[in-house]
Amino acid sequence: MDKFLQKQQPVNDPLQTPNILQSKNKMIQKLRFFVRLIPLFIPILLIGMYLLFYNFIFRYVKELFSMSFVIFIFIWSHYKLYCLLYHWYKSYTTKPFIIPMNYYHSLVNNSNEIEFCDICKQQKYPRTHHCSVCNQCVVRYDHHCAWLSCIGLHNIRHFYLFLYHGTTTTLLGLYMLVIILYNKKGNQEFYFKCVLLITLVLANLFITCLLQFIVQTVMISVNETMVDMISTINSLIKNKTLVLPYYISLIQNWRDAFLVRKDLSLLWYFLPYTPSIKYNMTIDDLDSIEIDA
């Protein structure tokens, strides 16, 4: 009996706990690795939908719509594909961990209230939160989008414009598909059945993009993130008072979210390109300078 107990004892040995934790950490790292690969399927999906459009839908567009509309759709579809791919690329590749100079000054000016992240033990800048997927603190953390990347201060603009172009693209696509389905009802061709399936998929994509687009529009307008909005709603429920601590003005909220240079108009930042940073800056332009976290 004693020999049996001695054999069973190592199973409950607390010294094995580090090994168990190490195996769990490896599993978490593998899961994070695969989650980060998900955004790479987006360009494949976009190009695939582009090919489906010209193989199955465009033949009906040429038949049912005027030549001027066909030319417009041809130019518009290529422009939208470029915009979607551009903003996907910028959202995916932009590092959300870089600290703007104004955040650095805020930490220095409030040096008596320096906070540290409980997880990564780094200095916690204002409106910075730890992303469990990226395993790093993100400035102005909004959320981690599985289809793009970790959304924060430096790529919220590209995420928002990706939603905008996704919403407008699927909306016009649905318009054309509804016209085709109405005029070709009863058609038993293989291509027409594919059009019906594409319509169902596109309708789901439109609803998804539209809802997220509306939510992001509201949050940027009041200068809040998803994390801020949750705190605001909880405060509203408890105190029956709506408090927006980061609200400045409607235009300035958008300029802050899009990191607009002071010498440029906000409208420039709705275009599919990224303005360069000026190097001959004055003291007032320091907010555009970034330092590594």
From TrEMBL:
Signal peptide: none
CC annotations in GO: membrane
Protein's name according to its UniProt entry: Palmitoyltransferase
Domain notes: The DHHC domain is required for palmitoyltransferase activity.
Organism annotation: Entamoeba histolytica HM-3:IMSS
UniProt enzyme class: transferase
Similarity remark: Belongs to the DHHC palmitoyltransferase family.
This protein's UniProt keywords: Acyltransferase, Membrane, Transferase, Transmembrane, Transmembrane helix
Catalytic activity as recorded in UniProt: L-cysteinyl-[protein] + hexadecanoyl-CoA = S-hexadecanoyl-L-cysteinyl-[protein] + CoA
Keyword Transmembrane: yes
Cellular localization per UniProt: Membrane
Membrane-spanning intervals of the chain: 33-57, 69-89, 162-182, 194-215
Residue span, Palmitoyltransferase DHHC domain: 112-230
